[in-house]
What does this fold into?
Amino acid sequence: MNATPSPPREIVLIPGFMCDASLWQAILPTLEIHGKLHLPDLNQGSSIEAMAEYLLPKLPVRGTLIGFSLGAYVTSVSPACYRSASTS
It folds into this structure.
């Protein structure tokens, strides 16, 4: 019986205010075993909604969003195709 392998999990790590992808460096090796990582920056938009709108076209179609601080607020306005794991 040949089972079709499931596609890799897409994990999006959204940093907080005045942070960038380097925020996640210490935990990347642990997270990489769970799926493909995406590390966008919050460098566009003057509101949480505008930041989410800027990020959306750059993200995979489905995935898990993990946000820290301001990144957690951005995950809260994400579309339903994403699971959010917000931290603050």
User: Anything to note?
Assistant: The first helix runs from residue 28 to 32.
